[in-house]
């Protein structure tokens, strides 16, 4: 047929009688090449065979890695997506079971993680200096320690990059071993989808998991040891449990799932404890200024007693 489906379904004027044959029967000529008018909505809906209307373009990564167009795909998020991912990284059980596959893997971003990491670096540095000032109240020689910025940046960036990279490499090794064993047992080769998350997805998840330490670092300036440790446990538990909820579908497919779970939780707790102990915690030790007067009094009393015995003799 020359006409499309829209041509067949549209109203047309067809001849009722076959004048050439002279018969009185009515016939419909469905092959008449008449042109029908299409509205702009019909043209836009039927232009693309894949169901994508003409005039809309899909975001495709293009260009080399040295062009800005290549990195636009990593920042293709809006405010609602960033806020939702921050809340999911703080609230356990908020993420559904397939959150990593449907929400993160389809659109991993670096916008949120970069801002969270930068904010946390300066928050810890400023709050750490505030805690140091409170610990040295009355000391007029106290000075701001600018090295805390570099120290916090080194710790945070190392954790946000190396831990996801190590987890990605370990999952690639452990999960692929299971897939190879399954393929060897099967007679027919079946193409298996990649079951491990990408490195970019893991960096995105770990970057958002650090968001909870921004308000916690401000509260760490309160110089109460029990309260500081309570913040460490609370922050590490909430963020670590939410992180584990997101990663659990991928971790469960590894043969060393229990070991990976323990490593994830211990690394997250060690980061929180390291922040508190190095930047905020005041060690409970006696200063030499408090010990020296007591020693001086003991020495003076010994000398006085020895002098009195010598005079009496």
From TrEMBL:
InterPro entries: Yip1_dom, Yip5/YIPF1/YIPF2. It is a multi-pass membrane protein. Residues 21-58 are annotated as: Disordered. GO terms for molecular function: small GTPase binding. The keyword Transmembrane helix applies. GO terms for biological process: vesicle-mediated transport. Residues 21-37 have a biased composition (Polar residues). Keywords: Membrane, Transmembrane, Transmembrane helix. The chain crosses the membrane at residues 110-128, 148-171, 199-220, 226-247, 259-280. Residues 104-272 form the Yip1 domain. Its main location: Golgi. GO terms for cellular component: Golgi apparatus; Golgi membrane. It is found in: Golgi apparatus membrane; Membrane. The keyword Transmembrane applies. It comes from the Eukaryota. Belongs to the YIP1 family. This is Protein YIPF. It comes from Anopheles gambiae (African malaria mosquito). The gene is 1270133.
């Amino acid at each position: 047929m020359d006409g499309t489906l829209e041509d067949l379904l549209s109203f047309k004027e067809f001849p009722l009688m076959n004048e050439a044959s002279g018969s009185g029967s009515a016939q419909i000529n469905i092959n008449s090449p008449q042109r029908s008018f299409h509205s702009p909505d019909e043209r836009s809906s039927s232009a693309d065979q894949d169901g994508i209307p003409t005039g809309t373009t899909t975001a495709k990564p293009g260009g080399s890695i040295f062009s800005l167009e290549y990195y636009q795909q990593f920042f293709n998020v809006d405010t609602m997506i960033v806020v939702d991912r921050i809340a999911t990284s703080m609230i356990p059980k908020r993420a559904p079971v397939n959150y990593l596959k449907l929400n993160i893997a389809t659109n991993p971003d670096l916008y949120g993680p970069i801002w969270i990491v930068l904010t946390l670096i300066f928050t810890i540095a400023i709050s750490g200096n505030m805690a140091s000032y409170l610990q040295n109240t009355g000391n007029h020689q106290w000075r701001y320690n600018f090295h805390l910025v570099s120290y916090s940046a080194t710790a945070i960036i190392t954790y946000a990059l190396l831990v996801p990279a190590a987890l990605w490499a370990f999952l690639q090794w452990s999960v692929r071993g299971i897939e190879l064993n399954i393929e060897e047992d099967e007679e027919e080769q079946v193409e298996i989808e990649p079951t491990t998350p990408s490195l970019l997805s893991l960096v995105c998840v770990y970057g958002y998991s650090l968001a909870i330490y921004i308000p916690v670092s401000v509260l760490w300036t309160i110089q109460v040891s029990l309260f500081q440790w309570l913040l460490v446990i609370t922050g590490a538990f909430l963020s670590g449990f939410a992180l584990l909820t997101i990663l659990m579908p991928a971790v469960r497919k590894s043969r060393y799932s229990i070991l990976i779970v323990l490593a994830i939780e211990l690394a997250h707790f060690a980061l929180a404890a390291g922040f508190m102990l190095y930047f905020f915690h005041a060690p409970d030790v006696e200063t030499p200024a408090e010990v020296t007067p007591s020693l001086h009094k003991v020495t003076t009393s010994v000398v006085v007693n020895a002098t009195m015995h010598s005079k009496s003799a």
